[in-house]
Amino acid sequence: MGDPEEYLEANRANWDDRAAAHAASADYALGRFVAEPDFRSATVRFDEPRLGDVRGLRGVHLQCHLGTDTVSLCRLGASMTGVDLSPVSLTHARALAEATGADARFVLSDVYSAPAALEGATFDLVYTGIGALNWLPDIDRWAGVVASLLAPGGRFFMREGHPVMWAVDQERTDVVALEFPYFETAEPQVWDEPGTYVETDVEIVHTRTLEWNHGLGEVVGALLRHGLRVTMLEEHRSVPYEGVPGQMVRDADGEWSLRERPERMPLTYTLQAVLPS
Fold this sequence. Notes:
This protein is of the alpha/beta class. It is built from nine helices and eleven strands. 31% of the residues lie in helices and 23% in strands. A seven-stranded mixed β-sheet has the order 3-2-1-4-5-11-8, sandwiched between helices. Strands 6-7 form a two-stranded antiparallel sheet. Helix 1 (6-23) packs parallel to helix 5 (87-100). The longest helix has 18 residues, at 6-23. The radius of gyration is 18 Å and the shape is globular.
């Protein structure tokens, strides 16, 4: 892959650009967080029945972006730390936490450096939201980070895009075509795309990104190798955005599903694992 830091530099620049677009977008609804004390992100709301009671837990949210999921978990009673590699994203996250009075702090770090950036702290809850793992080259190394951040008896909770969906050719609207790797590869998929996944007039200048897919078995296997015990794995037929453009319909809750025969493929999954005491 050449320079091992290349992916961090390219992806950080891209997410710095996206942060301004996302902060102004109705999809992230920052204004609603300020205006409505009980408002929570769609990602957190979707999984609240699975997430259960988080009151009093100390949590860390890896790849927190603007902090909307982080603040949402605070509103459910957790004390949260958000971690992200984009300083621009964290500027918006800190402003959101201050404006809402959320019990949240934010630390600048990429995922693999998070244990050092957090000075060896451990947590009751490690949380990751949707669209995070595809930015990481090594899923086993990621699982090691998750395990190192958990206190004994703590749990990891994640909703993520399904690797089948990430493998779909989004340019095809006539069929669902698996065109890209399902499994982790040594080399990244390199993209150069001008936009982002929300409607915006903000120009994305740094358009080049480097991404990887990770098979579901690879994710589960990595967590098991690092001593976690998987307690829940649920695949879903929906995703919070139009993950297969031109072939989806949106429901009343804002989730998108395949217009025809949605039983054909999973689009996201929710996973929970615990670190035994």
